[in-house]
Sequence to fold (339 residues):
Amino acid sequence: MNILYGIATTGNGHISRSRIIVEALKKRGHSVNVILSGKEEKDLFDIDDLKPFHIKKGFTFVNDKSQLSYIKTILHSHPIQFFNDVRSIKNIYDLVITDFDPISAYAAKKYNIPCMGIGHQYSFYTDIPMTKKMKFASIFFPKMYTPVNFTIPFHFYHFNQSILPPFIDPALHKEINTDEKSEDILVYLPWENLDDMIAILQKISKEFMVYTKIASIEKIDNITLKPFSNATFKQDLIRCSSLITNAGFQLPSEALFLGKPMLCKPLKDQPEQEHNAKILKELEYATICDKIDVNSIEHWIKNKIKVQIPFKDPMNLIIDIIENPTTDFSHRAMELWKE
Fold:
């Protein structure tokens, strides 16, 4: 098949997952062209594996003081550019796959090409527990944001629905030498103010590795600042003792697979992150806080929740669903959750 694969770049989890799926599709003989939307190319990293790709403006969420700003998001939406980007897509594809990218989804709608939505957001099409805010948001979002014909949803748990376990990067399946493990705490908080985070972490008697938008590694007291890199981040995730992050989906899933205790702070007013935080708390998979401060971190360090879940690899099923979108694979999906 000739496939257009759209990837939202507002969260690195979309790229991390899509990189492996695109490679698998190419190995099966499919031709795959990629759209990356939401960030400029200078703000993206480790994307060579996705070639050939095109960078589009798309939409992105705007953060204001660690809180999602709907007004600023709308003001930065550039609707004329969006429609021009949709029109720039040629009608040459047999299938469109979107990992929460709206440009590819609306191009599929324009040309009446079958569109497959793949990712955590599409679990909101199913009958799963949701916060009231997420139930309301799911009426419009993702159904209007990325309209699709078929879905491949992921979640932390199946909730007796045809949902796949999280896709875990094969790099995280390898065993690590005990001597290589570290007591450092890995920190990935892209929605938080870096200066505020540094001031807080300096007051805690632990070593921290903080991934942020920086050109090269810097050391500030007990904090090591590191530039974004998929390869080195995954290595540090394997080695670290625990993780502090927001309440996205891909990274918490990988931490659960590795058995890393987590402190998660959802981005305020972002319905998906608030939903994820609620589910992680109810399943007792992670510690949740409303604010990152010295007290919340120190309390978490003393009362860490350690859960390890050996999620089964859904890759073969993902490819089978993509190649046979009208086939019912619900039985195979549930088989992946069995111990």
